[in-house]
Amino acid sequence: MKRIAVLGAGHGGCAVAGDLTLRGYEVRLYSRSASTLDAIRSRGGIEVVGAREGFARVPLVTEDLGQAVRGADMLVLVVPSTAHEYYAQALAPLLSGDLPVFINPGHTGGGLHFVHALRRAGYRGPIRTCETVTLTYICRLEGPARVAIYTPTKHLRFATLPGNALEELRPLIQELYPNVAPASSVLETAFLNINAILHPPGMLLNTGWLEHTGGDFLFYHEAITPAVGRVIAELDQERLAVAKALGIPSIGILQHFFEAGLTTREAMESGDVSRACRESAPNRTIKTPGSLKHRYVDEDVGFGLVPMRELGHLAGVETPVMDALIDLASAATGTDFRQEGLTLEKMGLAGRRPADLPRLLQEGL
Question: What is the C-alpha to C-alpha distance for residues 184 and 158, in angstroms, rounded to an integer?
Fold first, then answer.
């Protein structure tokens, strides 16, 4: 691989584009918003600081999706889950069957949603997607065209859809990110979406403080108090119960947090979610969003908790804490997340039975 089309120029997209450019890949960076790209054009590239240092002169920065995609060896989709349907519709007339699509990250059901939306948009060719459970970096934009990569995400699971494309796509992804490890299916990665377990309780149970200060406090270090941590632990048990009922391997949030390099071994072994967040060095300086209208709610409730709850319904598992958080988020924001979120129908799973899932995940939609 040489030519990589990176779609999305937010925190993650700039990290991917900057890192891969510095490593010698020919990156085409696309955003549907010209204003998002203005600073990159004005500076002539992206300044990368932190775990990788340098000034990345990205060869192509464009709002023309066709220009970004034509001739690429891989397409890396680095956008919120809420944008997957938009990109599926836009890419349907541009994709060819030999172009792999790396959804970075897929969160919960992202690949299923993208492929189902692609089919509904009229694409009939073969499609090979792969996805990571979370972004390949802990990173943040720190200024115009300046991205800080605090650390690559460690022990990152990835899976392919269809599952039978794993051995074909695995060496390509590990060329870009040697730290990734294959998962059994896109549902295994889906149930490792710890953002959906951490962010909604942290936001909703701190709403008064958040609205009063405009988010002027540290999310992981200060907002995840012991009581909030206990809610997160209960929510995590529901996640594990749904995964187990569907025969999907998974691990607890503290083990996953530790393996990703996000907390200390001592915090993991303590069983204390609040402590694990306080001892998360990579997340230490991340502040709380200033509004509930943020991906920590829009994405992590609508495209994290909702699909987990929907899969729980499919498996016959009750999810009372999950349901309560979805309803609280809906009431607080005025958005009906049960309708607007990622449902079984939007993932192409409506009318399916649990027994149907292994074949569907292996062969694709």
Answer: 9
Q: Using CA atoms, how far apart are residues 357 and 6, in angstroms rounded to an integer? A: 30
Instruction: Judge contact between 263 and 277, C-beta under 8 A.
Output: yes
Q: How far apart (Å, rounded) are the C-alpha atoms in residues 237 and 246?
A: 14
pLDDT tens readout for residues 113-157: 999 999 999 999 999 999 998 899 989 999 999 999 998 888 889
- Among the listed residues 199, 256, 272, 298, the single catalytic one is 199
Tens of pLDDT, residues 313-344: 999 999 999 999 999 999 999 999 999 999 99
| Closest CA relative to residue 204, chosen from 105, 335, 32, 82 | 335
Find, among 294, 122, 300, 110, the residue nearest to 196 by Cα.
300
Residue 199 annotated in active site: yes
How many CB atoms are closer than 10 A to CB 202? 25
SS3 label, residue 204: helix
Token pair recorded at residue 343: 């449902």
Our answer to whether residue 300 is catalytic in this structure is: yes
Supply the pTM of this predicted model: 0.91
